[in-house]
Amino acid sequence: MDRLIIFDTTLRDGEQSPGASMTREEKLRIAKQLERLRVDVIEAGFAASSNGDFDAVRAIAGTIKDSTVCSLARANDKDISRAAAALEGAAHKRIHTFIATSPLHMEKKLRMTPDQVFEQAKLAVRFARRFTDDVEFSPEDGYRSDPDFLCRVLEAVIKEGATTINIPDTVGYAVPELYGRFLLDLRERIPNSDKAVWSVHCHNDLGMAVANSLAGVKIGGARQVECTINGLGERAGNCSLEEVVMAVKTRRDFFGLEVGIDTTQIVPASKLVSGITGFVVQPNKAVVGANAFAHASGIHQDGVLKARDTYEIMRAEDVGWSANKIVLGKLSGRNAFKQRVQELAIPIESETELNAAFAKFKELADRKAEIYDEDIQSLFSDEAVTPHNEHFRLVSLAQRSETGEKPHARIVFQIGAEEVTSESDGNGPVDASLRAIERRVKSGAELLLYSVNAITSGTESQGEVTVRLGRAGRIVNGVGADPDIIAASAKAYLSALNKLYTTAERLNPQTSLAP
């Protein structure tokens, strides 16, 4: 094959980041963007892990037409049957089954003998083939498994009909050259290895997930890479989709492979995932970071002005960054706003959503002279919870902060249909505002994270605040944007509270056993 299959697991493995769990509607929004990105395979979730995830996989399977929709399943009949049921409506479907094969995992976690694991793997693939011809098998912790045992298992599951064999570096222990050779050794030793597509799934614990994945492709002959938007994932994250795709496209001279990804949809996908999960993209993140195409050095600026390719190996526009920055203001009408939204490839689910975003735009334009593309995108990614589902909503905020005096905040917000007022002192204006909310709500939630990110440059920039709350083992993120950073903080806190109080079921993926 001269084509690299891109398998996105943002909605499954990416969701295993503490606080990144999503509702059915949030998963569906991301899945639609992944389809626009032309991802080959979308791992929509772990259908057997909860009713909420089952419904999300089923909704995605019934909506996505171009990409293959996949569900993860442990190597047992119950999980596989649940995955098959969730995937029934898919135009193209895949069941991804797995079982641990490393000595450590088999002994300590599974408490199974190698022979038991061998039989379980065979039976799982055989059973999955009853529902689809597209079956993927993963030996969890494959890189730390005994090669002889791994060859025995993989040869058997290929005989049973596994069409994709994935070799996970589950704990990010690999280094590129060794991982590539490990994969190549397996392919050379297994007689029927040519009957399956080989895949790589690498974690980033040592910061080498992308390098290991590309070594698996170049040295090991893998033709599928499992990755996530923004490298999202538990612990240090997963292999980053945008980095792998642009590495293969930019260095086609070296890899000699094609990818079917529409790269202009990379930045919109990055912003959507960041907005929904509350995981801010670091400014110096490759490809999708705010500074990825910025040049501060005078020498660099001079070179880029004379010839772009002196310091840029890819164009910002090719990955979805807009060259057109300031486009709209307070005199702009609805049609101009709608046209710019379409140019930015922001999906509009309904006229109601567009009208709500336009109302927010007009409100923002009254407070901020120059509206940037990033500001427009924030209107749509500001919050996945629609207004009619908001239990808590900010009405107004007044705060006083003076050197030598205790900061004080007075906040008016809605709880359901009731409008309430609360006041509090604090160590700072943000602390006072959040204390005022909590004084009335009494949620008992623990504040796990508070972070601020400027959406654009300059002192007029909107501040984007992420708040992470934890309560009774459940972790949620809230995001709020506003030119007033104190107001953005209150919005983010109320957003997180909305998620704590919502009736929509959210998977707690940290409890699942997944590669």
Distance between the amino and carboxyl termini: 26 Å
Q: How helix-rich are the residues, as a percent range?
A: 25-40%
Quickly count the helices.
Answer: 17
Report the principal-axis shape: globular
Query: If you average the pLDDT, what whole number results?
Result: 88
CATH class of the largest domain equals Alpha Beta
Say what the CATH topology of the largest domain is: TIM Barrel
Subunit arrangement of the protein? single chain
Structural class: alpha/beta
Low-confidence stretches: 384-388, 505-513
The main sheet orders its strands as 1-2-3-4-5-6-7-8
Number of strands: 16
- The CATH superfamily name of the largest domain is Aldolase class I
The figure for the number of domains is: 3
If classified by CATH, what would the architecture of the largest domain be?
Alpha-Beta Barrel
Largest β-sheet summary: 8 strands, parallel, barrel
Task: Kindly provide the radius of gyration, computed on alpha-carbon positions and rounded to a whole number of angstroms.
Answer: 24 Å
Strand content: 15-25%
